[in-house]
């Protein structure tokens, strides 16, 4: 941290270095606050006269500004990186990794606790397994169960046709021998197909 001195030091342009120790507060100054400086500042009378004179010349327009020097345009290639990967500063120290591990551990633990709080007793915990098993079964049926469902439909149609043929054979009069034999044969065939 740097600090700019506030006193009159026209000859010095350097900055004072201040080291701040964490945990130590600034020293408390019990002396009374100094009075505010005059409008012209704390400079001497001769310095003040020189400032007023230069201001008067600027306002009259007798001072010509110096010509501005053209600024060189730097040709910067923003894609020119070195071969090293972009590694954050914390990843280069053991303390940084310890801090990152602690943050990650706490965030995962809190996320798990939030998940547990969201679970209801009849719909959470053990019920998660049941829901997962049902979803897996639905997924399997979605892929492999198409053929099974088609076969089940065909069996249902065949059983319905067998029942209809048996009913026709049962109620065909025995006087019509040819029709009765044909109906019995059809009923037997459809029964075999249905089985």
What does this structure look like?
By secondary structure, this protein is an all-alpha fold. The protein is built from 4 helices and 2 strands, in the order ββαααα. The chain has helices at about 45-60, 95-120, 125-170, 175-195, and strands at about 1-5, 15. Helix 3 (about 125-170) runs antiparallel to helix 4. The model has no long low-confidence stretch (mean pLDDT about 75).
Structure summary, number of beta strands = 2
Distance between the termini: 93 Å
The fraction of residues in strands falls at: under 5%
Number of helices: 4
Structural class: mainly alpha
What is the average per-residue confidence, as pLDDT, rounded to a whole number? 77
Gyration radius, in Å: 48 Å
Unreliable spans are none
Order of helices and strands: EEHHHH
Shape: elongated
Major β-sheet profile: 2 strands, antiparallel
Percentage of residues in helical conformation: 40-55%
Q: How do the strands line up in the largest sheet?
A: 1-2
Question: What does the secondary structure layout of this molecule look like, with pairings?
Answer:
Blueprint: E1 2-3, E2 16-17, H1 45-60, H2 94-118, H3 126-171, H4 177-194
Antiparallel strand pairs: 1-2
Quick structural overview:
This protein is mainly α. It has helices spanning 45-60, 94-118, 126-171, 177-194, and strands at 2-3, 16-17. Helix 3 (126-171) packs antiparallel against helix 4 (177-194).
